[in-house]
Structures are given as C-alpha cells and as structure tokens.
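How a chain folds remains the central question behind the approach discussed here. For one protein, we set the task of working out the structure tokens from the amino acid sequence alone. The sequence in question and its structure tokens are set out directly beneath this paragraph.

_____
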Amino acid sequence: MKKNIFFLLQGKLLLSIVFTIMFFVILSIILLEQIDIKSTKITETSKKIPILVETYEAEKMQVQEEKIELPEYTNLPREWKGYEVIGKIEIPKLNLEKYILSETSEQALKVAVTKTAGPRVNEIGNLCIAGHNYIQTFGRLKELEKGDILILTDTYDRKITYQVYETSKVLPTDTSCLSQETKGEKEVTLITCTLGAIKRQIIKAIEVYD
C-alpha cells in the first residue's frame, strides 16, 4: 500500500515537473516572438530615420535660402573683365570704390580686389580681401586709422558699414589675420603688400550697428 502511494506521488511529481517545463518552454517561445517583432519594428524605424533627416535638412536649407531670397545683381555687374563679382567695397577716406572678385590670382589682382578667405560679402565671419599696393587699389591702406569707415555692398544690394578697429604689419608667413573666430560678428580684413613686399599691411574692421 505504501509502495503504491509512493509511486503515485512520484508520478504526480513527475507530471508537475513536465508541465512546469512545458510552461516555461511555451513562455519562452512567446517572449522570443515578441522580441523579434519589436526588433523588426526598430529595424524598420531605423531605415526610415535617414529619410526623415534628409527631409529635415532639405527643409532647413530651403528656409535658409528663403531668408536671402532677394533679386541679385540689380546693383552690380555679374562679371568684371571676365571675373565673377561678389560685391563692392567703398573706402570714403581714400575716395576708393572697387568691385570684389570671387577669385584670387595674379591676373584677377591686376583687375580689382579679391576675396581670399571667409564667408560671402556681409555674412557672419571674417571676409578677407586682398589687393595689390597700387594707388588705384590698396596702395593707400596705410593711411587708414582706427575709427575709419568701410562700406561693403553685396549682390543682393545689402549695404553694411564697418569700422576699422586694428591696423598692423605682419610677415608674409603670418596668416592669423585669416582666422574665422569672430564670435558671431561680421568682420572684414583688408590685405596688401608693403613696399618691397617685405611685410603685409593688415586692416581689420567690424560691423557698425545702428
């Protein structure tokens, strides 16, 4: 009798173990399926993210373009003696007015003054403009002093006044004047050679606010 009860209990225990194992197996299968579904959704979402980013970038660029969506070249020629014009500089003290060309080369410098580094005309950054030390271009830059005025006009007919805050002479190997660290300001740097091209005459100016 005791043996029968023992075998009966043993059988029930075995069944309980089997059912418990089956329960955990089924539960594991269900969990794995859920994980697989979630990972599939994440993968599908990650595939869509670049498209959303690209769309956002395109929209952002479109907005930026709309901010300067003005008619161009209503006030300036598109070209001057075969070179693209990107703006005009006026220096009242020197009675000087010159087109700014987009390309810096020996030939272009014989025609006008040229952009050597920096942003577009009248944009945030340090617009660096080079010119030969001819009287008709930048030959009289040494006469400028702190407080003197420069006026730059861009191709959208936007005119901004800049005030000279620093004048210096540097060696040709010193390129620190080209730095674009302007702390969000609009700056202009004028560059020409001294007599004999021993040094560079540097004039730095910053936007004047109303």
Summary: The first strand starts at residue 79 and ends at 80. Residues 2-9, 35-66 have pLDDT under 50 and may be disordered.
